[in-house]
Structures are given as structure tokens and as C-alpha cells.
């Protein structure tokens, strides 16, 4: 194996070793579970220092590609379906007086499903196994709201399950994926589970940095993750110009784009997609759990016909989504009563977010969050901020599970979805938490 790594090595550096091992794993030249050389033997075999190999091994282990087992050795990780998630489990909070950690919609603002369920009961009976994977009425409704004309469109159970189905089709083990320095923690868990190497690129108020995306794609990254309408966790809305430029980069280098719209009609910006510029490279996922109801358990995705077909062929036990759920979603999308309700809910969420951000600004805490349920708050110390908030009976989500860049600045994620009152009091507490240093440092005024 040392000879294989030496042949694949482009530069005698830790990152060069990381890339060489990733490529060999992706090509199947190193099998899952196979033992790798010791640090000392590999360093001698490729002519670098032991510290260089050690750094590469630590990086590969942190990215979930290697499994280090002490004296037993270091192995290429076996991917198993029962592995615990590593990023998202750190986000879930405990019971507290004010829970700002979840990012879920306010249950009081969700549309009532009962009238639509009654319509299903009064409708035609179900005849058993369906001949079509999608109800024709639902297909027409989805195409009418889609931000581009797709080659193929189908359904999934939810965004995370669907991404898990798409990744084996869009990527290979060891491939590089472009992500923001901050991303939704379950996405990072999925990339790690499928043995993908995340390449963090900077973000600003308009989204991912185009030059950094171009550098990564031109260096061989096979996939770029974008959340253009509302980014979770940062609440940034990608500008149409930024999205188009990223799409051109990926199109010109034949690199895929995985695009997720999780906020739907609650978003302030119109639906947009990189597929209008890079149709053969883009897969677009649309969920309905935030604007309609999380119990629908239906999402839709569209893209190149070969990608959609391969996902459907890989499904075991049938490629359709429950017709009960399909008809329920179709009834809600077709109802004249739902759009005004969603629009009214959007106004409520916008008011809550604006009031909180304004109160933060009055406390000299500035954020880039402009839409969605989440506000990405910079802090001096994540640990100290969370401890301070807990002492006040407030929970927020730690920022570190969302960060793909280990050197990223500390943040916490605050959800405004259920913040119906007390904006100034909560903002005062968040601002104090943001100024709190590590234990033993400066103590904020209470």
C-alpha cells in the first residue's frame, strides 16, 4: 500500500497524503476495513516526516475516512447504517424555560391538517399498489411551483433521507464536497457517513465565496452544496447573481450542485435555482415541513433524468411515496385557503426575527441573518455563552456542530420561530452571553 500512496501522492505534504488516500479509497484501491501502514513506515516509504503523516492521519480521522484503533492500527472506515450521528446530536438541547435551540416552526402557526384529512376520507378508496410513483395532480402542482423546467421530478420521504439516496449516485467514497464554513449539522453527518471530504469555503451576506468555490471545483471537488433561499444555520439569503456565478463554475467544470430549499413559501426571496444556468449538473430538493407541515413527510426533488432514474432504481421495496401523503400534500397545495395562511405566518416570523435582530443591534451585536428561523450569533466563547444562557434558563444551539471549518470563529444558533414575546429581554441575555469570555475571564453585567 505504501507504493500505491507514493504513486498517488502529488505533493509531499499532509494535505497531499490526505488527498492521495482519499483518491485510493474512492477508486477502491483501499478496501473498507483494510489496515493502513504505520505512521513511521509510511513516512519512511514516501520520504516525509512522521509528524507530516500524523497530521494527515488526524485530518482523515476527523473527516470520518479513517478509523484509528490505537495499538491495533489505523483502518479505512467501514460505513455502517447504525453509526451514530456526530454533528447533529450535539445540537439537541435540554428542557429549559426558553428553548431557542431547535429551529422548528411554531406549532401554533402550522396549518391544521384535519380538514384535509377529512377530504381524503371522503375521496376515492385506495386500490393497493400504485401503478405510478407520483399522483398526476401532485406532479402538475409541483411543476407549477418549480423554479425551472426539470428533466425529471420525483418524490422523497424527507430531505435528509433523499440526500442519503442521492449521495451514492452523485459521488464516490473519498470525493471532495464544497460546503460553507457553516452548514446544517445533519448534512455534515451525511457527508461524513458516506466518506466524503468536506472542503469549507468562506461565506458572506450573499452566500458562498465564488472564487473559493472555483478553486475547490477546479482542484477536483465533485459536488457543491447550496441553500440559496435561506441558509441554515446562518439565515443568509444567497443573491441570484452569486448563485448564477457558482452555477457557471460548476457547469464549466462538470461538477454537481446539490441544492436544498427547506423554507419554501415562508421565504422572502422568490424560488431560485442553479439549474437555470447548469441544468445537467443541478439537483434541486424542495421540502414542505416548514411552510406546510412536518407530518406531511414528503419532499420533491428534480434534476437530470439519469440521476433521478438511478435513485429510483436503487430503492428497495418500491419506488413510490405513500399516496396518502401525496394526496394530502396535493390537497394543501391546491387549497385556496393555504397560501393566505402561509403568507400571514411569514409576516409573523418576519416580525419576530426583525424585532430580535434590532434588539441585538441595540446591544451592539450585529448579525448577517436576514431570513428563516435561525439567527447566527458571533460569540467570544461558545462554551461560556451557553453556560451563561443556561444559568438564565435559556437554551441555544452550539455553533461548533454546524461548522465544517475547525478554525471557524465561535457562534451560537438562536431560533426565533417561537419567540412571540420578550425580544428585548432575550436579546439582552444573548448579548451578555456573546460577550462572556472563557471561564475565569470577564464576567458580563447582569
Task: Explain how this protein is built.
The protein has 446 residues and is α/β, with parallel strands linked by helices. The protein has 3 domains: 2-76, Winged helix-like DNA-binding domain superfamily/Winged helix DNA-binding domain (Arc Repressor Mutant, subunit A, Orthogonal Bundle); 88-108 and 339-435, Aspartate Aminotransferase, domain 1 (Alpha-Beta Complex), CATH 3.90.1150; 128-334, Aspartate Aminotransferase, domain 2 (3-Layer(aba) Sandwich). Helices cover 39% and strands 14% of the residues. Strands 4-12-11-10-9-5-6 form a 7-stranded mixed beta sheet, with helices on both faces. Strands 3-14-15-13 form a 4-stranded mixed beta sheet, with helices on one face. It has a two-stranded antiparallel ribbon with strand order 1-2. A hairpin with a 5-residue loop joins strand 1 (66-68) and strand 2. The longest helix is centred in the last third of the chain and has 25 residues, at 338-362. The N and C termini lie far apart (60 Å).
Amino acid at each position: 500500500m505504501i507504493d500505491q500512496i507514493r504513486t498517488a501522492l502529488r505533493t509531499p505534504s499532509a494535505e497531499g497524503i490526505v488527498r492521495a488516500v482519499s483518491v485510493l479509497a474512492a477508486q477502491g484501491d483501499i478496501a473498507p476495513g483494510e489496515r493502513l501502514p504505520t505512521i513511521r513506515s509510511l513516512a519512511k516509504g514516501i520520504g516525509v516526516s512522521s509528524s507530516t503523516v500524523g497530521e494527515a492521519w488526524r485530518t482523515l480521522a476527523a473527516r470520518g475516512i479513517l478509523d484509528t484503533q490505537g495499538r491495533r492500527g489505523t483502518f479505512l472506515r467501514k460505513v455502517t447504517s447504525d453509526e451514530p450521528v456526530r454533528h447533529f446530536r450535539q445540537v439537541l438541547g435540554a428542557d429549559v424555560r426558553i428553548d431557542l435551540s431547535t429551529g422548528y416552526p411554531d406549532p401554533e402557526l402550522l396549518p391544521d391538517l384535519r380538514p384535509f384529512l377529512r377530504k381524503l376520507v371522503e375521496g376515492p378508496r385506495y386500490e393497493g399498489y400504485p401503478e405510478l410513483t407520483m399522483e398526476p395532480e401532485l406532479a402538475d402542482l409541483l411543476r407549477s411551483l418549480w423554479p425551472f423546467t426539470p428533466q425529471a421530478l420525483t418524490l422523497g420521504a424527507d430531505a435528509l433521507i433523499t440526500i442519503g439516496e442521492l449521495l451514492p449516485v452523485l459521488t464516490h467514497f473519498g470525493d471532495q464536497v464544497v460546503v460553507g464554513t457553516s452548514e446544517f449539522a445533519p448534512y455534515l453527518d451525511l457527508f461524513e457517513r458516506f466518506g466524503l471530504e468536506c472542503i469549507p469555503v468562506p461565506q458572506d451576506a450573499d452566500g458562498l465565496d465564488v472564487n473559493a468555490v472555483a478553486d475547490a471545483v477546479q482542484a477536483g471537488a465533485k459536488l457543491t452544496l447550496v441553500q440559496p433561499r435561506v441558509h441554515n444555520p446562518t439565515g443568509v439569503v444567497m443573491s441570484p447573481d452569486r448563485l448564477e456565478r457558482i452555477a457557471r463554475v460548476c457547469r464549466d467544470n462538470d461538477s454537481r450542485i446539490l441544492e436544498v430549499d427547506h423554507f419554501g413559501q415562508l421565504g422572502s426571496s422568490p424560488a431560485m435555482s442553479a439549474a437555470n444556468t447548469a441544468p445537467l449538473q443541478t439537483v434541486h430538493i424542495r421540502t414542505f415541513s416548514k411552510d406546510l407541515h412536518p407530518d406531511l413527510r414528503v419532499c420533491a426533488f428534480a434534476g437530470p433524468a439519469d440521476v433521478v432514474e438511478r435513485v429510483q432504481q436503487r430503492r428497495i421495496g418500491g419506488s413510490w411515496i405513500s399516496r396518502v401523503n401525496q394526496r394530502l400534500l396535493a390537497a394543501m397545495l391546491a387549497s385556496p385557503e393555504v397560501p393566505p395562511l402561509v403568507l400571514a405566518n411569514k409576516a409573523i416570523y418576519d416580525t419576530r426575527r426583525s424585532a430580535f435582530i434590532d434588539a441585538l443591534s441595540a446591544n451592539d451585536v450585529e448579525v448577517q441573518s436576514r431570513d428563516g428561523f435561525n439567527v447566527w450569533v458571533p460569540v467570544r466563547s461558545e462554551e461560556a455563552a451557553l453556560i451563561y444562557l443556561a444559568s438564565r434558563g435559556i437554551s441555544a444551539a452550539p455553533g461548533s456542530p454546524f461548522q465544517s471549518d475547525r478554525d471557524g470563529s465561535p457562534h451560537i444558533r438562536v431560533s426565533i420561530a417561537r419567540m412571540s414575546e420578550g425580544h428585548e429581554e432575550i436579546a439582552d441575555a444573548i448579548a451578555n452571553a456573546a460577550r462572556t469570555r472563557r471561564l475565569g475571564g470577564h464576567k458580563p453585567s447582569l
